[in-house]
Design a protein that fits this description.
Chain B: It comes from Shinella granuli. The structure holds five protein chains of five kinds. Chain B is α/β, with parallel strands linked by helices. Chain B has two domains: 1-77 and 156-233, P-loop containing nucleotide triphosphate hydrolases (Rossmann fold); 88-151, no CATH class. Chain B has helices at residues 40-48, 70-75, 93-100, 108-119, 121-125, 136-149, 166-181, 193-199, 217-222, 224-231, and strands spanning 2-11, 14-24, 29-34, 55-60, 63-64, 78-81, 154-158, 185-189, 202-207, 210-216. A six-stranded mixed β-sheet of chain B has the order 6-7-8-3-9-10, with helices on both faces. A four-stranded antiparallel β-sheet of chain B has the order 2-1-4-5, with helices on one face. In chain B, strand 9 (202-207) and strand 10 (210-216) form a beta hairpin. Classes of the chains: A mainly alpha, B alpha/beta, C alpha/beta, D mainly alpha, E alpha/beta. Chains in contact: A-B, A-C, A-D, A-E, B-C, C-D, D-E. The complex binds adenosine-5'-triphosphate (2 copies) and magnesium ion (MG) (2 copies).
């Protein structure tokens, strides 16, 4: 069954990309209940800035580091300039702000950089690795490892650290959070910085595979969003599993059923899962008594 | 310890506090009574910093608080058990308590938590349950316990006895008294005016955003008007 | 003939028996109070009776009809109405509209009539608005009618919920701590209101921690502890029941109670 | 979000007056085109006001219904021999039926879960439209037959240019659509929708069949979107799957929220702004995207309830 | 001034077609105006960005005609936008030169509509000719599901029978997909497939090419003219792209053209000017815009008038105009005016292009 294996490897590769994006959503969502639709732009920025820094002669690791730091800075700016001033606005308004931000970032990127598609070299070459008749590129392993590592860090962050719980508390009840002494502005800033950095890191990891250009953000954000919802928004485990599942679903559909309708199949499965589990696979039900 | 002068506050265009003057001495228990909508909750919200103040001053231990953000007031020793409980419904009881001591990370946190469990054993039973699943009264206990976890030097309590069984109402007032013994200052807003005035040193009466009467608790409790309007006697 | 009949009702949360084997009945115009320590299962019992939770065991009958696990809106149609311990207000609507919303069942027509604003639909709307104003007056919120509901104080919101529940013209009314957040004088007003409603033939099931109020207006009291019914009877006998005193009233409060009574 | 400022009559009057008077100031017939687009978008947004503003349910897939309405007008005349106007009605009926079927399961979901489910629905529709190329012409689209009403008008002596006709016609449809939606607002149905928006449990206990009313809102808004798609198709005489695309869904929601989903005029104003903005921003050339994003952010930051409600609040504030 | 309009997809999914098109037009107009304009009149170029949205394009088309009162329009980057705006120009009787590929734009012929790029059908024909020569009769198809890929797939399937070639596997991928190994695995697993054809543009073909190498499919891989730019080799990686064949225009191999080639002077001049002006490598798509403007300017010059109908007539009389895509000769029946010779079969070797004819 080398085909099955190949489909699986392909699914895991793509799934890890989705998982990385989905993981980026979790922190801001956990801190504010807002799905940041500009998350895809963070991924795009990670790839684009790395490419241009690399093209300007910097070694790849340094270029990637600059990209991550710069993107984190942009995340903080987004919070300070757009989210914080709108504090207390209804969640839909905040979502529109993040959509506006994503259009803005896209517009700025095409001006500062360009509208071409770019790629930088894979970290460990392009020699495919053979596994039982199927192949996988070394870069895919990087992506998978990245997704696992970020998942693990986030999981630790939210379950083992006080500040992680403060993030959750901020989203759950901002006023109460202030009343116990949590600086909610700081929590928000931190969340945006971390989300943006994770997004940028994702961009750095996936660009050798997916390529990048100023407008890849939206599609990535959409898939990442779907993956996160499938797994249950806000839960790192959900993001990881949701991403991988979505990728494998797509690959299997493309391989066995119809490549035309692989996205459709993915969404049908998401609908089916949500029908049975309205909170996604691992989402927790909010417990509000009446 | 806490001095409020000419405090005004508004929701949108509607002013609901029209210049409140009030002071609380260190180690004192002071209570505010008043009818529904008098502005008691608003006053406490102004003090803890989650409600903007449009005029007047709040001075706490010699420092002007008016521009200090809410979270920083906690650091200065001012904690609140708010109206509507405002617990973290998605977090467990234990996490709620831990966050109450957000500013601390020493061994005493655990001791404080055990004290809280001793005070409200039911919370210990439910420690791993999402706080949103607690009954109304249990949530009220959690809100009080969480405020105590912050090791306040001045505690603002907004109707702490609300929704509690009679046996616990008595206990809450005992707790308030014992806090005084520990040197904690308490500003208590209560609908159970009788209970509140019984434990308080002094009291204020609030009517539609103004202080209309104040004095030693014993005097207030004996005042005919107060007996008629708030105690139902 | 009992209007509301509850038998062996029970539900579990994560293995904990929140309510177990609770049964009692309610006659027309009767006021029955459910009391018990915090977490005894009073609100959960209300939630099961009103269809918010599906009971795991037992049976609820309304006027002889088995209504166990029936969704709330169908129970409402059969004359069961309630208020909430954790306020459930239509925040972005005005106070008046909150009360009008309580008339939903009486003003309901077809969507088409509403879309085209047919005269019948308008007439129904107007009728329920008038009735809602009267109800607001009754609970003392007449002057706040045009205000945004979100801007009321806690005590006022409690009364708004009562008005909204009354708008259904219920046969059975479930009140979960209606006097919480009200001072003694305000509580007495609510007292009178409840008594008057009961006098009109509405059966009332009441959860309340204010013992003065409970003793004053209840015909019958059911005591829960840890989800089980531990006592039941006339107010006077309940106040003396040692198990109730120990679990719920506390010696101090019981003394005060007896001194008052 | 209380719609105090706009009693039904004033809202309709303002709307009708603006539609009737604006052409006096139009320097060229291009403005009629922009106007008619505003009305077409405004109609879809009016439907979303019912869904988002009244009932508090979000949908990121409503363009799917616009797609159904649009392609009904393209396909039904060719394959079923229907008159384009009837095709639009058929499209609306089909949209309602699909909304009814799809709505049942997905409206059980809340918040973002509903958003992603509706988004999935929209993507399914646009995917079918672009994959079934034999039928729909694929991503490159297909032609739509003439509505023919203009010719009828001409026969009775009213001679309008193409753009003028569509301006007047979609304006009329918008006014009717807004009238219906406004009727709904103060009606028992509208109240039930707003009640379940506030608290589903409480709505249930006052007798509101929450699932039913959510479905009502969903179906109604689907019909609005469908008619809007039909109008667009008939006006452009050419249609591509973009009309059902994700971006179009987002655009619709943005229009509603930007203007103020709680107020009908506000939402239509939002449609007007987002429709004209790209036209205005062309002077900024490469900076167009940047400006668009910036405007969206600024409006939502400084007018969090949406443009019109915030302005109204400010005016009322100053008056006192 | 002579007002010429354009509505292009400078942003959106087709932006890397529309972007060089817009840049080219702006650059050329500047050049022409600097050299004194056309018939002594300056050109006033008005460019709108429709973002690839046909509805927006339609509004801009109306604006160009009604508000800006242009005498001719270039644009419609994609087939969808072009088809959506054709009725506007036909109604207003303004000549319109589309930059999109589909044959529907000029077939049937509409009086005022022209186009410059080869049709997809021509690209298909060029590829199938090459396959036939190589003795390939069974292929696998993997096409992008965007407008470009879907349209070319359709055209190819329509004429493939004429070449006796059979499609054994017919796969697609979405425009933003990141991995096409499942589809390629299926093609690879089909017995008898001798070559693979990939109609598509954007990043898709680059990823297909990379996955193709990863899976060591080992069969000849044909790409379409949609990827005809140096950027493609860079994206796919020289190693993975080695041996890929595609029909390209003279522009792509400007430096490799023999001195005798009639197009050489034109393409070298454009390439140098463009790369100097923008700092970006030239692409086939910019060439489409280049040709459109040249045709228009040539027609206005010959017409000696800026009357739209006169311009239209003159465009139809274009004869032997050398552009980047080929030599254009229009007639009343042919509003494209290119033949197959305009395409050159190219192969990628060692990271560069080679003409294989
Ligand atoms: N969010 C709000 N928006 C507008 N007005 C408000 C808001 N909250 C409270 N008010 C108004 O402010 C006044 C004071 O309310 P507050 O909640 O402080 O009263 P209270 O004394 O705590 O009453 P209660 O005993 O019922 O809790 C009331 O008239 C109330 O209607
Ligand atoms: N959704 C839920 N999830 C978990 N536990 C629950 C849930 N609902 C109720 N419980 C548990 O059931 C028990 C009964 O709760 P309930 O709210 O009925 O108490 P109550 O008698 O109304 O108390 P109070 O007087 O404090 O309002 C509590 O211990 C509570 O923790
Ligand atoms: Mg209060
Ligand atoms: Mg309770």
């Amino acid at each position: 069954m080398p085909e099955l294996l190949q489909f699986l490897l392909s699914g895991i590769t793509v799934g890890a990309v989705y998982a990385l994006v989905a993981l980026g959503f979790t922190i801001i969502y956990n801190a504010s209940d807002v799905v940041n639709f500009a998350q895809g732009e963070f991924v795009m920025l990670g790839g684009m800035i790395t490419f241009f820094a690399h093209a300007a002669g910097l070694p790849l690791p340094l270029a990637a580091l600059i990209a991550i730091i710069a993107t984190a800075g942009i995340g903080v700016a987004l919070n300070k300039l757009a989210i914080e001033p709108a504090r207390g606005a209804p969640v839909v308004s905040l979502i529109i702000i993040t959509i506006g931000a994503s259009i803005f970032i896209r517009g700025a990127t095409q001006l500062v950089f360009d509208k071409q598609i770019h790629r930088f070299p894979a970290f460990s070459g392009d020699q495919p690795i053979l596994i039982g008749g199927a192949t996988i590129l070394p870069q895919s392993l990087w992506v998978i490892a990245g997704a696992l590592a970020i998942f693990f860090c986030l999981w630790l962050f939210f379950t083992r650290t006080l500040i992680g719980r403060a993030v959750l508390a901020t989203a759950n009840n901002r006023i109460a959070a202030q009343l116990v002494g949590i600086n909610t502005n700081y929590v928000m800033t931190l969340s945006f910085a971390m989300s943006a950095a994770i997004g940028a890191l994702a961009g750095v990891l996936v660009t050798p595979i997916t390529l990048t250009s100023y407008d890849v953000g939206l599609a990535l954000a959409l898939k990442g969003f779907a993956a996160a919802m499938l797994g249950g928004m806000g839960n790192p485990k959900g993001a990881l599993v949701g991403g991988l599942l979505l990728g494998i679903l797509e690959a299997m559909t493309a391989g066995y059923i119809s490549s035309q309708y692989k996205d459709a199949a993915a969404f049908v499965v998401i609908l089916a899962v949500l029908f049975a589990m309205p909170q996604g696979l691992f989402g927790r039900k909010s417990t509000d008594r009446v | 310890m806490l001095t409020v002068e000419g405090l005004r506050s508004r929701y949108g265009r509607i002013e609901v506090l029209h210049g409140i003057d009030l002071d609380v001495a260190s180690g004192e228990i002071v209570t505010v009574v008043g009818a529904n909508g008098a502005g008691k909750t608003t006053l406490l919200k102004c003090l803890s910093g989650i409600q903007p103040v449009s005029a007047g001053s709040i001075v706490f231990r010699g420092e002007a608080l008016t521009t200090v953000p809410a979270h920083a007031r906690v650091r200065r020793g001012l904690a609140q058990s708010p109206e509507g409980r405002q617990i973290f419904t998605n977090l467990t009881v234990e996490e709620n308590l831990r966050l109450g001591a957000y500013l601390f990370s020493d061994d005493k946190v655990e001791r404080d938590r055990d004290d809280a469990f001793a005070m409200f054993p039911i919370l210990k039973e439910k420690r791993n349950l999402a706080a949103g699943g607690l009954s109304g009264g249990q949530q009220q206990m959690l809100a009080i316990a969480r405020a105590l976890m912050g090791r306040p030097s001045c505690l603002l309590l907004d109707e702490p006895s609300m929704g509690l069984a009679p046996i616990l109402v008595a206990q809450i007032f005992d707790v308030v008294k014992s806090l005084k013994a520990l040197g904690v200052t308490v500003l208590l807003v209560e609908q159970n005016a009788f209970g509140a005035l019984s434990v308080a040193d002094r009291g204020y009466v609030m009517e539609t955003g103004r202080i209309t009467m104040s004095g030693p608790a014993a005097e207030l409790i004996a005042d005919e008007r107060i007996r008629a309007a708030y105690l139902g006697i | 003939m009992s209007l509301l009949q509850i038998e062996g009702l029970g539900i579990d949360f994560g293995g904990v028996r929140a309510v177990n084997d609770v049964g009692f009945s309610l006659k027309p115009g009767e006021i029955v109070s459910v009391i018990g320590p915090n977490g005894a299962g009073k609100t959960t019992l209300f939630n099961m009776i009103s269809g918010v939770y599906a009971p795991a065991r037992g049976r609820v009958a309304l006027d002889g009809e088995d209504v166990t696990r029936m969704p709330p809106h169908q129970l409402a149609r059969r004359g069961l109405s309630r208020t909430f311990q954790n306020l459930q207000i239509f925040q972005s609507m005005s106070v008046l509209e909150n009360a009008v919303a309580g008339h939903h069942l009486h003003e309901r027509g077809s969507v088409f009539a509403d879309l085209f604003s047919l005269p019948a639909a308008r007439r129904r709307s107007r009728a329920s608005e008038e009735s809602a104003r009267a109800l607001l007056d009754r609970v003392g919120l007449g002057r706040a009618a045009e205000q945004e509901a979100g801007s009321l104080s806690y005590g006022a919101l409690k009364r708004l919920e009562i008005a909204r529940a009354l708008a259904l013209k219920p046969r059975v009314l479930l009140l979960d701590e209606p006097a919480a957040g009200c001072n003694a004088v305000e509580t007495e007003e609510i007292d009178h209101l409840i008594a008057k409603v009961a006098a009109e033939g509405v059966s009332i099931l009441l959860v309340e921690h204010d013992m003065k109020m409970v003793m004053r207006i209840s015909n019958h009291i059911v005591v829960l502890d840890h989800g089980e019914k531990i006592a039941e009877g006339e107010p006077a006998s309940i106040a003396r029941d040692p198990r109730v005193i120990e679990a719920y009233l506390g010696a101090q409060a019981a003394e005060a109670q007896n001194a008052d009574g | 979000m209380i719609m105090r400022l706009s009693s039904k009559a004033t809202t309709l009057l303002i709307l009708a007056a603006v539609i009737a008077i604006a052409p006096v100031f139009f320097p060229s017939s291009y403005y009629f085109r922009v106007g008619s687009l505003i009305f077409v978008n405004g109609l879809a947004v009016t439907g979303l006001v019912i869904l988002i503003g009244y009932a508090g349910q979000i949908s990121l897939g409503h363009a799917g219904f616009a797609g159904i309405g649009a392609y009904a007008c393209a396909l039904a005349p060719v394959h079923l021999g229907l008159h384009p106007a009837l095709a639009a009605v058929l499209g609306a009926a089909l949209s309602a039926a699909i909304a009814f079927l799809v709505g049942r399961p997905i409206l059980r979901l809340k918040g973002y879960y509903l958003a992603v489910a509706s988004l999935g629905f929209g993507i399914l529709v646009s995917m079918v439209l672009s994959n079934e190329a034999q039928l729909t012409g694929g991503p490159d689209g297909m032609a739509v037959p003439e509505l023919g009403l203009r010719a009828v008008l001409k026969a009775i002596g009213i001679d309008l240019s193409n753009t003028e006709f569509w301006y007047a016609f979609s304006g009329l449809v918008l006014v009717i659509g807004a009238w219906l939606a406004l009727n709904l607002y103060h009606s028992p149905t509208g109240r039930a929708l707003r009640a379940l928006h506030g608290s589903e449990v409480a709505a249930r206990t006052v007798g509101v069949d929450v699932a039913h009313y959510k479905l009502v809102a969903f179906v109604l808004s689907a019909v609005y979107a469908s008619v809007s798609g039909s109008l667009l198709a008939l006006q452009n005489k050419f249609i591509t799957p973009d009309v059902a695309g994700f971006m179009h869904s987002i655009e619709m929601v943005t229009m509603a929220v930007l203007g103020g989903a709680g107020s009908m005029l506000g939402a239509i104003l939002g449609a007007a702004i987002l429709t004209t903005l790209p036209q205005v921003l062309t002077v900024f050339q490469e900076y167009e995207q940047l400006m668009l994003g910036l405007v969206m952010m600024l409006v939502m930051i400084f007018m969090r309830e949406g443009l019109l409600p915030s302005i109204a609040r400010r005016i009322r504030g100053r008056a006192e | 001034d002579i007002k010429i309009g354009a509505t292009l997809s400078e942003t959106g999914p087709a932006s890397f077609l529309g972007d060089p098109e817009a840049k080219t037009l702006k650059m050329l107009v500047e050049e022409i105006n600097a050299a004194g304009g056309v018939n002594g009149e300056k050109i006033d170029l008005i460019v709108y960005d429709d973002g690839g949205d046909p509805n927006k394009a339609r509004t801009f088309a109306t604006r160009l005609v009604e508000d800006d009162e242009v005498v001719a329009v270039i644009g419609g980057t994609t087939t969808g936008t072009s088809m959506a705006i054709i009725p506007v120009f036909e109604d207003a009787e303004i000549p319109f030169i589309s930059l999109a590929g589909a044959i529907e734009i000029i077939d049937p012929v509409r009086p005022f509509t022209f186009k410059t790029p080869h049709t997809d059908r021509m690209a298909c024909a060029k590829i199938f000719e090459d396959m036939k020569k190589a003795g390939i009769s069974k292929i696998g198809l993997i096409s992008g599901s965007d407008g470009f890929g879907a349209s070319m797939r359709k055209q190819c399937l329509e004429i493939i029978g004429e070449y006796g070639i059979e499609v054994l596997a017919d796969e697609t991928y979405g425009p933003t997909d990141a991995d096409m190994t499942p589809q390629l695995t299926n093609i690879k697993g089909k017995d008898g497939v001798q070559a693979v054809l990939n109609p598509g543009f954007g990043q898709g073909p680059a990823i297909v090419t990379r996955n193709y190498a990863q899976l060591t499919v080992g069969l000849p891989l044909y790409q379409s003219h949609g990827v005809a730019s140096d950027g493609f080799i860079e994206l796919a990686g020289a190693e993975a792209a080695e041996g890929v064949r595609l029909p390209g225009t003279a522009l792509l191999v400007a430096g490799l053209l023999p001195e005798s080639d009639p197009q050489r002077a034109v393409v070298v001049a454009y390439k140098d000017a463009y790369e100097k002006a923008t700092g970006k490598p030239v692409s086939t798509f910019g060439g489409y815009a280049h040709d459109a403007l040249r045709i228009l300017v040539d027609a206005i010059t010959r017409a000696g008038s800026t009357e739209p109908s006169a311009i239209r007539d003159a465009i139809e009389g274009t004869s032997g105009l050398v552009g980047t895509t080929g030599t254009v000769t229009m007639t009343a029946e042919d509003h494209l005016g290119l033949d197959l010779s305009a395409f050159r079969m190219l192969q990628i070797e060692k990271g560069g292009w080679k003409i294989v004819e």
